[in-house]
Amino acid sequence: MDKVFTKPITKQFEFDEDVAIVFDDMLERSIPFYKEVLELTCKMICLHVKEGAHVVDLGCSTANTLLALHKMNKSYHLLGIDNAEAMLRIAAQKIHAYGATIALQEADITQVHLQNKDVIIANYMLQFIRPLQRGDFVRKIYDALNPDGLFIFSEKIVFDDKVLNKEMIDLYYAFKRTQGYSDFEIAQKREALENVLIPYTEEENKAMLKSVGFTTIETIFKWGNFATFLAKKG
């Protein structure tokens, strides 16, 4: 169970061994409708791409999305990329336990070379890329997709209206309390993520997608300050 922030923090947030061990629990208790969004992501992929499609999950962590996708369509060629060795070690154990065929690669997702992909997934990952690099990174994703390829990603978002933004944050913290997190843990994680997780507004995310060439751009799920986007390469 996630107890990472029950003690005073000594560093900024990072996906290290302590986080990797409890990461699945952290996701389900920290992200509203996490399982539903994961299922929606996989179902949208199955609806839009052909048998034998090449799918890559950037920042795959412990491979939850790829495992769910494998269960829905075993013909897909699945690749998970992450720079956290501890995450990939747990992912490999889970893949082996399920008898799935999923390739894993330890690499910096901003530096890895991608091409001829039918789907690229990036759930709760872009927000950790510095804003000065984010647009160029999304352009690399666009270039790596085949025609009609999909880019699906989920993000924490902010609102332009400061009062509404504060209300959404308060509602999110109330959600975390219902998941068993204390006010101390919530404050500790907020401090650890300061200047590490930098979210955009929903409109800024869509403008970034449009600027690199994506044609179809839709928000397919939204709860408070979390959103899932689908972008299609024309």
TrEMBL record:
Q: State any single GO MF term.
A: S-adenosyl-L-methionine binding
Q: Which reaction does it catalyse?
A: prephenate + S-adenosyl-L-methionine = carboxy-S-adenosyl-L-methionine + 3-phenylpyruvate + H2O
Q: Which keywords belong to this entry?
A: Methyltransferase, S-adenosyl-L-methionine, Transferase
UniProt keyword Methyltransferase present: yes
Checking InterPro entries in the record gives: CmoA, Methyltransf_25, SAM-dependent_MTases_sf
Record has Transmembrane as a keyword: no
Class of the enzyme per the UniProt entry, highest EC level: transferase
Q: What is its EC number?
A: 2.1.3.-
SUPFAM superfamilies referenced in this protein's UniProt entry, alphabetically:
S-adenosyl-L-methionine-dependent methyltransferases
One Gene Ontology BP term is: tRNA wobble uridine modification
Which HAMAP family does this one have? Cx_SAM_synthase
| Functional note | Catalyzes the conversion of S-adenosyl-L-methionine (SAM) to carboxy-S-adenosyl-L-methionine (Cx-SAM).
Please report the name of this protein according to its UniProt entry.
Answer: Carboxy-S-adenosyl-L-methionine synthase
The protein's organism comes out as: Sulfurospirillum barnesii (strain ATCC 700032 / DSM 10660 / SES-3)
| Phylogenetic placement of the source organism | Bacteria, Pseudomonadati, Campylobacterota, Epsilonproteobacteria, Campylobacterales
In the UniProt record, what gene is named as encoding this protein?
Answer: cmoA
